[in-house]
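Review this chain:
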Amino acid sequence: MPLRIVINISKKIPGAQDFSSASASCSIESDLAHGQDPTAEAASLYRQAELAVDRQLGIAPATSVAAPRPAPTTPNAPIGSSSARAPATGRRGPAPISAAQLRYLGQLLERNPGVRERILADHRISTIEALTSRDASTVIDQLKGAA
């Protein structure tokens, strides 16, 4: 009787509107040939299933675990840098900036000319909309404290 590997993966990501989400899942079954390495086959099937789910959700394929960014040690730390950031796991990504955060941050940026470019540079993003919800919250708190 051949060995059978069953791989299941499911992901849920935040949707375009507040309190919405999108999800996708994939199941793959495979019989192992005699002498085939079950660990290597499982890893290969898992990558295939994860790629299929990522494509269905329209997100970038998961990558290997990234090291967390070190905490800033200078008094001129980047605005909104998260020193307690968890390492990326290749699973669900961080929540994007919310519509309410984006509106409020826009108001704060109008009152603080020149700060937008510094935020973009510090976070290595091209638009404010690319901030994560956590980073946006930190930036907002820092801009409110500076006012």
